[in-house]
Design a protein that fits this description.
The complex is a heterodimer. Chain A is mainly alpha-helical. Chain A has 20 helices and 2 strands. Chain A has a domain of about 220 residues. A two-stranded antiparallel sheet of chain A has the order 1-2. In chain A, α9 packs antiparallel against α11, α12 packs parallel to α18 and α13 runs antiparallel to α18. By secondary structure, chain B is mostly helical. In chain B, the strands form 2 sheets. Chain B has a two-stranded antiparallel ribbon with strand order 1-2. Chain B has a two-stranded antiparallel ribbon with strand order 3-4. Classes of the chains: A mainly alpha, B mainly alpha.
Chain lengths: ~500, ~500
């Protein structure tokens, strides 16, 4: 395989950019902001170059970059992109500049540190999606916690410290169990293949041969770590805290990309490494996913805080993604992958909109609003549009993902029971209830507070952050095949591979 | 005959002789120039470098027993294993002396600087013998040499009640532990009629079932080791001594003295019980005593008690003391496997832990210099007031937690590899969960440094030399986290023990 340096370029642009931020004078905040934006845009351009060169008809990894790293343990620096990661990489490079723009005003203090951590976070996220070596993967997976810890902890809301520590400990607990499983697998590979290896592609050959009862444990260890990240019910309790306390940019990144690392991990690691156990546990995990869908929706319904409402809606939406993954049909897998992108866009936009209004009024309580549609019509339109996309209105992006997932779940031979799909569908209805109800209380009716009359509508900067997202929301809704074709070959080959075993 | 043997093996203990001469030189220099104590640290450093040079020269030397006569094999051996630990001890001592130069705490005892460096040199000498002894008597004497020097050092700041209390507690616990150990040694001697490890090995190898008397003797001896490496339940002295002693000495005890204790324990177990090695690198030990059980219990206790006790500490030094107990637990977990893989993990872990822990203690010392406090509440917002120290401390704490991309992760990784190679799932999961617990209190320090707002607005500046020293300790922590190939090679080489 030819080594292709562009994947490393993608990874190192934000890293170098982050290091250079440290050299900037602390006082020159605009310069630092522009630099951060510039670096993240360059990263986006690099990812577009990769996108144009990406051949969706090829199964397997492209743009592979492999260098020996620690030869005595067979650890390699090994990057590559396939139909699964390309979409998530594009999502990452797309969301990062937007969240940087969104925080232009709101992070008034310590801009330098903020930009540094945001860029570092981008490195971590890209690294997770690019790594094809479990050692490398684990480094990025863990290293990413530190910038996120600081972003929540320094720029967050009132209970930021509690939220950041909770986030850190939850994720770390899961990942250490995964580390144990990873090392066990690498040691097992040394018996099977003759040498200790952390190369994911080699481990793919080893995983399915692991004796059945140990495989179950390995599967559960990996799944625990990813399920905490997703977050799958009942491991979701860190999410509302982290989301509510994080600054807008942090919430956007958290919802937009970080949560996807969990579902990405399930697809990349759990399924192909332990196919037998994945099928064995599929019904149980699907049940948890459905509980998550309904529970998330019901809890979202009774929230009085807009941000918390959106946070719980994430639990519900990601339940759909997990259900799609464990249905083991091509449609559902495709749907899960596109739904990961959809959720990143819709929920990201929702957090941005909540952030916008919070910046003006410093309250997120739904009760503090009312009738603002007359005062800020553009804002109200944008909120309507985003809510509809999140609900899954046909013609917008959410519909495509949810439809494919439900279709796949109905057909699923592994789950073998159409009740799964029936219950999941109810989640779609609940989503309409909580979002539209929230919308009604915030935007319609009489203007309840005098202060609201002075509310300013969306300014240019905010429109710049929202419009690109809206373009994609419509694009995916109307012509999804631009995106579906990227992951088609990947989904087919993965499902075929698993069903064969 | 005996005289000849002694003369012939003199060149083998070159480094030890150099350290002993250094000790005398410091005493003489101190007496000769009572006014000029500024040169003492530099004299000591020169001596350490000379000893280091002699040690490195020994590396190419054909290994041999020292003081070998007749059928009694020698008292100490020179092998790669001892070589590695001697260099580690010298490196740590060098750093500690540099730390001492910048310690405000010790400036109050400036008139007794001579004693201070003499005692540190004494500890080095003792530890040199500890890591290379193969004889029960030498073992006991070397442990006592180290202990007595450290009793005095722990109580060095006479004016501080805390420090005096530390010294006193240390000596009481130490005396009891070494008394028990001596009793164990006498039982072994009574049973086998020899004090030499290899000869004891000859006798122990043939026993096919646990022997009550021998088991009792080895448990008693283990008390001595447990005390030295502060393993639970012999750890009670650790927090008080670590908190009360001057920070330099705390750092020294937590790294060098612990390393020497581990080296001794490993050599003791491996030589005395060794009957062979299987193709996967696992030791086949004599059935006379089941080390595996004892070590597993001690290791689980040590890490769990260390971590949970650290959770409640509000004094950073005391917190690091408990955390160092936990780290000893992780290393014991690797030793439990009784394999070459496990030894490699310990060797790697010591390098990593040494760097990181020294760095953390040094920053605690520097902060104490400026603020006069080690309480965690006084760390509020310090990360912004001393940016470089804050970042360095954060990196070091992340490394102590064992998160990538720092060296601490490599240490943990190796511990996990050695445990899962066996495989011993339960222990691996216990180590993993313990790391999560440790995350909480390490992150608590980071939280105070950055997330809490400072109580007082102030700026701190540090001399260039101190800044450089911090960087010297911090940068390798990152580099070793990403590129640890050479560390592994060095570890593997150092495990070639003489005679196997």
């Amino acid at each position: 395989m030819e080594n292709n340096i562009i994947t490393s370029v993608l990874l190192f642009v934000p890293l170098v950019g982050a290091m250079l931020v440290l050299l900037f004078p602390q006082k020159n905040a605009p310069l630092i902001r522009f630099w951060g934006l510039f670096v993240s845009l360059v990263t986006f351009v690099v990812s577009m170059v990769i996108y144009t060169g990406f051949d969706p008809s090829v199964s397997g990894f492209q743009f592979v970059h492999k260098i020996a790293w620690i030869p005595s343990l067979n650890i390699t620096y090994y990057l590559g992109i396939d139909g699964l990661s390309i979409l998530l990489i594009l999502l990452t490079t797309f969301i990062t500049p937007l969240s940087l723009i969104s925080s232009w005003k709101s992070t008034g203090h310590k801009v330098k540190e903020f930009t540094f951590f945001m860029l570092l976070l981008e490195v971590g996220m890209l690294g997770v999606f690019l790594s094809l070596d479990i050692f490398l993967f684990y480094i990025f997976w863990e290293a990413m916690l530190i910038p996120m810890y600081f972003i929540i902890g320094i720029w967050g809301g009132k209970r930021r410290i509690y939220a950041s520590v909770k986030f850190f400990i939850f994720t770390m607990a899961g990942s250490l169990v995964m580390l144990v499983a990873m090392i066990w697998l690498a040691v097992y590979a040394s018996e099977q293949l003759g040498s200790f290896t952390t190369n994911l592609l080699d481990l793919y050959k080893v995983g399915p041969n692991v004796p059945h009862n140990i495989q179950s444990w390995m599967f559960l260890a990996f799944t625990l770590s990813f399920a905490i990240k997703v977050p799958l019910f009942p491991l979701h309790t860190w999410l509302p805290d982290a989301h509510v306390e994080a600054p807008t940019a942090g919430s956007v990144i958290l919802a937009g990309v970080l949560l996807k690392m969990g579902t990405y991990g399930l697809i990349r690691f759990c399924l192909p490494l332990f196919p037998q156990s994945s099928i064995q546990f599929a019904p149980y995990i699907s049940v948890l996913a459905i509980i998550g869908i309904i529970y998330g929706a019901l809890v979202a319904m009774v929230q009085s805080d807009m941000k918390k409402l959106v946070a719980y809606s994430s639990v519900a939406h990601l339940g759909f993604v997990v259900l799609g993954i464990f249905a083991f049909t091509e449609e559902a897998m495709q749907g899960a992958i596109i739904q990961m992108v959809n959720h990143g866009l819709s929920t990201g936009a929702l957090f941005l909109l909540v952030g916008v209004i919070y910046e003006r009024t410093h309250t997120r309580e739904i009760a503090d609003y009312g009738g603002i549609a007359k005062i800020v019509p553009v804002y109200a339109t944008a909120l309507m549009f985003t809510s509809l996309s999140s609900i899954g209105l046909p013609g917008l992006n959410g519909f495509i993902g949810e439809f494919l997932i439900l279709l796949g779940t109905f057909k699923s031979s592994v789950l073998g029971n159409w009740w799964f799909a029936v219950f999941a569908t109810s989640g779609v209805i609940f989503a309409a209830v909580y979002l539209l109800w929230m919308y009604q209380r915030v935007c319609f009716g009489k203007v309840t507070h005098d202060k609201l009359n002075k509310l300013e509508d969306l300014n240019t900067r905010e429109l710049v952050t929202l419009l690109p997202i809206f373009v994609f929301i419509v694009w995916i809704g109307i012509y999804p095949s631009t995106f579906l074709r990227l992951s088609e070959v990947f989904s087919n080959s993965l499902i075929n591979y698993i069903m064969k075993i | 005959m005996v005289i000849n043997t002694i003369f012939n093996s003199f060149h083998l203990i070159g480094p030890e002789i150099a350290v002993a001469l250094l000790l005398l030189a410091v005493v003489i220099f101190d007496l000769a120039f009572p006014k000029n104590k500024k040169f003492l640290p530099w004299l000591t450093i020169t001596g350490i470098i000379v000893a280091g040079f002699l040690t490195v020269k020994q590396y190419s030397l054909e290994s041999g027993f020292v003081f070998e006569s007749g059928n009694t094999q020698g008292l100490i051996v020179i092998d790669n294993f001892a070589f590695f630990f001697k260099l580690l001890i010298l490196g740590v001592s060098l750093l500690i002396i540099l730390f001492s130069v910048s310690s405000e705490e010790l400036k109050n005892c400036y008139d007794r600087a001579g004693e201070y460096y003499t005692l540190i040199t004494g500890m080095i000498l003792g530890m040199f013998f500890m890591v290379s002894t193969v004889d029960l008597i030498t073992l006991y004497i070397s442990i006592e040499l180290v202990s007595f020097s450290s009793y005095v050092l722990a109580g060095f700041i006479k004016k501080s009640k805390r420090s005096s209390e530390a010294g006193l507690k240390y000596i009481i616990y130490g005396a009891v532990a070494s008394g028990i150990m001596l009793f164990g040694i006498s039982l072994v001697f009574g049973y086998t009629g020899t004090t030499n490890f290899y000869q004891i090995n000859h006798i122990v190898v043939h026993s096919l079932s646990p022997d009550f008397l021998l088991s009792l003797a080895f448990i008693l001896i283990f008390v001595g080791f447990g005390y030295k490496i502060s393993a639970v339940p012999f750890h009670f002295w650790t927090p008080d001594v670590y908190e009360g002693a001057p920070t330099t000495i705390t750092a020294y005890l937590s790294v060098a003295s612990k390393a020497a204790g581990f080296a001794l324990l490993i050599r003791f177990v491996k030589i005395i019980f060794f009957t062979g090695i299987d193709e996967n690198g696992y030791w086949i030990l004599s059935k006379a005593f089941n080390w595996s059980y004892l070590l597993i219990i001690i290791s689980v206790l040590t890490m769990t008690v260390g971590n949970f006790a650290a959770l409640w500490q509000n004094n950073v030094k005391r917190m690091l003391a408990y955390s160092s107990i936990a780290h000893a637990g992780y290393m014991l977990a690797a030793l439990t496997m009784l394999s070459e893989q496990g030894l490699l993990a310990i060797v790697v872990y010591f390098v990593v832990y040494g760097l990181t822990n020294l760095g953390a203690f040094y920053i605690v010392l520097l902060i104490h210099n400026k603020t006069g406090s080690e309480e965690i509440d006084d760390y509020d917002g310090l990360g912004y007031q001393m940016p470089l120290m804050g970042v360095a401390m954060t990196i070091l704490l992340v490394s102590l937690t064992g998160l990538p991309p720092t060296a601490g992760f490599i240490g943990k990784l190796y511990v996990f590899i050695s445990i899962l190679d066996a495989p011993h799932y339960t222990l691996a999961v216990i180590v993993a969960l313990n790391s999560v617990v440790s995350l909480y209190y390490y992150v608590r320090i980071i939280k105070h440094l950055y997330l809490n707002n400072p109580k007082v607005e102030r700026e701190f500046t540090f001399p260039v030399t101190q800044t450089i020293l911090v960087l010297v300790l911090t940068i390798p922590v990152i580099i070793l986290g990403l590129y640890f190939g050479p560390l592994l090679e060095m570890g593997k080489v150092s495990l070639r023990m003489f005679g196997f």
